[in-house]
Every structure is written in C-alpha cells, then in structure tokens.
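Notes, Module 5: Reading structure tokens.

Key idea: the token line is not a picture. It is a compressed description, and you learn to read it the same way you learned to read a sequence, by spotting repeated patterns. We will look at two proteins. The first is printed below with its tokens.
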Amino acid sequence: MSSTPRQLLQEFFETPLAKSARYNLSASAGEPMTRDQLLALEEGIAAGMLETSLDYPRRHGSAALVDAIAGHYQGVNDDGVAVTSGLDDALGLLFLALVKPGERVVVLTPSYPPHLLLPHSRGAHVVPWEARPENDWVPDLDELRELVKPKTRLVLVTFPQNPTGFMPSQSYVDTLVEILRERETLLISDEIYSGLPHESSKGVNNLSDHYEHAVTMHGLSKTYGLPGLRVGWIVSRDLGVMRRIRKECELFNCYVAPPVDFLARLALRHEATILNRNSQLVRDNLELATKFFARHDNLFRWRAPMAGVLSFPRWLGLGGTRVLSQQLLERESLAFAPSYCFGAGDDHFRLSVSRRSFADGLERLEHFLAT
C-alpha cells in the first residue's frame, strides 16, 4: 500500500463528543459483566479468588486455563495455545512472528483497522480482499484465488466479519481451504465475534479445525462481555507456527495475572450460562432492529448479521454517514462508527446489537429522524 493507513476507528471514538456520548450503537463487546456477577455463577468461589497468590504465575497462563481453551478445538494440545492480553496483543505477536518485510499479505476488508495497520508496519505488501455491498458483503472466492496466485505469506479474515456480519457456510469454508491448501498459504482467522447467538447453526466456527495451516484467534472480550479481563488466545494445529509465536511472546509479557486467570477459568466453566445471557439480549435487540428498519426503509437498507452482533446498514438520506454521525453526536449524544472508519466509503455505519442500551440508542435515532 502506498501510504500508511490510520486507526480511524480509534480516532473517531477518541473525539471529545464520541468519548462523552450517552448512547453508543457501535459498541462491539457484549453486555459487560461485573466481577461480582461473574463470581456469583459458582457458589463459594469468591473465597478462592481472595486467596489467589500474587507471586509470579506460570508462564503463558495456568495449565487449567490453557486446557480449557484447548478443549474448544479439535486436535489441539497445550503446545497449540498461546494466551495473550486481548486480541490486539495477539495480532501484534502474529505479525511479528510470521511476517517479514516485503512479504505479501491478503486482508479481508472492510476490517478492523489494525488488520491492515500491523502488516503494513512490518513492511509487508498488504493486498485488500474486498467484500462489496453489491454482493451483500459476501467476499468473492474467485477473486481470492487470483489474489493468492503470487506467493502470498498469509490471508487474514474475520468471521463473523467486522463490520458487515458476514459468516461463511461449510461449503464456503471448504472452497476457501482448498484455495489456500493448494499453495500452503497460512490462514489467520480472527473469530473474536463468534459464539453469538449461542448454539446458532449459522456458519462455521473454529477454522483451525478445518485447515492444518490455520491460526485461530478468540477471547473473552466480545461474546462473553468481559473486555476488562484482557484475555485472548491464539490456537493452531501447526506447531511450527505456534513455536514461532510463543518464542516472540517470551520477549514480552507472557504472564496472565493470577486474578485474571482465576476469573477467566471461571468464565469458561460457565460459558453456556454467559453466552445464553448475551444471546437472549442479541435476539431481543435484533427484533427491535428489524422493526426499526422496516419503519424507515426509505432511509436505510439493512441486513441482519448472519452471526455475531455486527451489521453494516446503508444510509439513503442526505449527506454521508460522516455528517450524519456528527449530527447525532451533537444533537442526541449518540455515537456510531461511520463507514469511513473502516475504509469503506461514506454511506454505511457499524451497528451493534450487543448492549442493553441498544433500545435507548434506537430511540434517540428515531427522535433525530423525526425532527
């Protein structure tokens, strides 16, 4: 890429009006839990946390935490897991360990900006694989086949996609893997939004289960509603790749703070309860969104997310979403991330159905449209 991309999403949310907004329709993490709500999931567990040692912990997370993570994947043992401080650190480790200057990296777009920023910072040749609105944001696999024909180090995807909500079917994943396996191209799969709605049959999770050279990332921030714990993980059956990642991790912080490790293990033990809680909220909010967009189909085009909590409605009114966003901040104290934050033009915005405050945010948007 000819110029250094910017972290426009972070820049937007760091503006004074966005930081002080009372309502946020783009919050990506699930409804947050408090420490006490999490401890209440297991009787008598609070005493155990109070007795947790604050000495140096085991490197790379406790054995119990690593085992709990590995148990979510097929054919993965402890050596195939690296615990990180959220996925921002995980992404940094991946590109530090796996990408050299000048190597070709294909990134599914629109995307979370660091997906483009980080390989660019490593001096990689970054090539967008563009999902397009005219195709309902379904990335074209024939186009990917052409993009990886030159020697490509890796392909980075997000499923469910941030911000469009696209989620691949089994047949789609089969073709994707066939394209990459032909050239033994690494696949990096950011799956931080997978798991909601809980027990949904839509789409395929855990791409490391489907491709021997896939590296999957997930964590507790988005679907679990525990972003304050800063617990993420990298998983792969490719142990050569994992050795390189863990070796880089040794140069930085490879510890998980014992109280955080304790709470993370607790969350994973009660995963179904947490995901059912958050899934019900997502379903309720999707129902509200469906009714809202039906009432305003002259101003918006919206497709519900195929999985996860994010979608990318199109604004049909006057002006672009950059202007609309600014007006909503000024008049309604309502924030949403316009599509320019994702390098995707100026007529879409990211909508999240993950929070309890979603109904209030829609009410403020409704009020704005009526005035």
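Here is the second protein, with the sequence above and the tokens below, as before.
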Amino acid sequence: MKVFVAGAGYVGLELARQLAARGERVWAARRHPPALEPGITPWPCDLGDPALVVPEGITHLAFTASPDSSDPSSYERTYVEALTRTLEAFDRAGSTLERIVLVSSTSVFAAEDDAIVDESSPVRSDGTAAHIVAGESIVRARRGGVVLRLAGIYGPERTRMIRMVKDGTARCASSRPIGNRIHRDDCAGAMVHLLSHPAPADLYVGVDRAPVELAEVYRWIASQLGLPAPAESDEPDARGRESLARGGSARKRCSSRRLIESGFAFRYPTYREGYGALLAGT
C-alpha cells in the first residue's frame, strides 16, 4: 500500500508508525510535521487549501484530521471542507484510491439512556454531529469508502483519568455515566486493519470490549495506585461533564461487535490492559 495519512496528529502519527513497521510506504500530512521515523515521508500542507497538492501514486487514504476547537464551524472546516478538498486533490492527481478510511466519532449517536448502540443506531442531526455525519456521507458514497467511529481516545500523554484520581478531582457521580473508550494504539490498529481488509463494510464502531461506568474505572485505577476510591457525588466531575457536552446520552454503551467479527483483535481489549500499561509506564 501507498498510504497518505491526512491529519497526522495523535492517532494519525501512530497509524503512520504502524504502517511503516509493516513495510508500507507512508506520507504523513500536517501543517508542521514533527521529526518522523524512517519510512514515513513528511508532507507539510494545509488540507483545507483549495490548491492542495498530494503525492502521486497513492493507493490508500486515511483521513485522521481533527477539529481545532469544539465549535461547529471548526467541525465543518474539518469534516466537510478539508475532507472535500483532500479528495479533490487526489482526483486532480488522477489517483485511483482503493480505500478511504475516515476517522469519525461515536458522539454522533442519538442514544437514550442505557441503550446499546452499533452501526445501525440512529444519529443526531444537530451541532457538531451534523458536520461529522456530512463528512461520513461523502466518504461512504465513494468506492472503497469506510468510516470508523471512535469512542473516547486515551493512551500515552492522554492519561487524564489517572491524573484526576491522583489529584482527588475524580468523582463517582450518582448519575452513573458510562465511559466508552479505545486506546490510541488500537485506534491505529483498527485503521490498519480496515485499510488492508479485502472487503470491509462502510461503517464500523471503534470502542474496546468493556464500556463500563466511569466510577468502575476510577476505582480500579485507585486500587492500582493504592489510593482511596474517589468520593461519591450528586454532580458529575469534569470528565463526566465533557461526556454530556458532546451530546447524546451519558449512559450509552457502544458495541464493536462488527469490527471484532471482521477479524480485528484488540491490543488493549479493556481499560484494565490499557490503563495497566500506562500505569506501568509511569
């Protein structure tokens, strides 16, 4: 494969690393690419530039760009404008893209409390979700287009729940919010899987195998650190409030059954393996 990673940030850079480790040719696109590992070619650019130039001969596109802010207009610039201009650039270059994988978000689901959501579940049409779904439609209408809706991403340098347990700001809310999450390395691994899959579906949910209440994760982290369990509270903490702010229900459980049945194996199947590795690293 010759893969163009459009938006080589937190997930995109790890995707580029995993692809290069497999021997694939990789181009990592962002405004100011950092120093990259051997086998990854930096491609400085603005994906929203109408005159965007892309490498010749690309066979696979991974669009992993993320909005600059939580404002709906920022989501429109990323999921509609930048995505459209990136695809137009490949059309101008005469590239025949065999596969396009777009990173999306489970925040688009219009779930009720305690619902289990999957690829067939309804989505929201308000706020940021409207622009994310518009981008999804652009990709799914293309030959070889695949959308991967990712849950909350954690991993190296994204250890907020550990910090909150350590500094005492974590709270076990009486509303019992659910945490749907996936480790960064599994985000990238799922994309490698879908980029190379011979016949994928056009939509997958990317979440680990244990969507559980945030309180369970807090208590487990505290036990590993030898700290008291976080206090009970009638109000959600900062992590819980952010979950609510993204829209939909704070008690939905996302299912990755389709992704698993396609042959993907998680490196970190639950929060225990994922946060366990992070705690071992600290």
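Summary for the second protein:
- The chain is about 35% helix and 20% strand.
- The chain has a mean pLDDT of 93.
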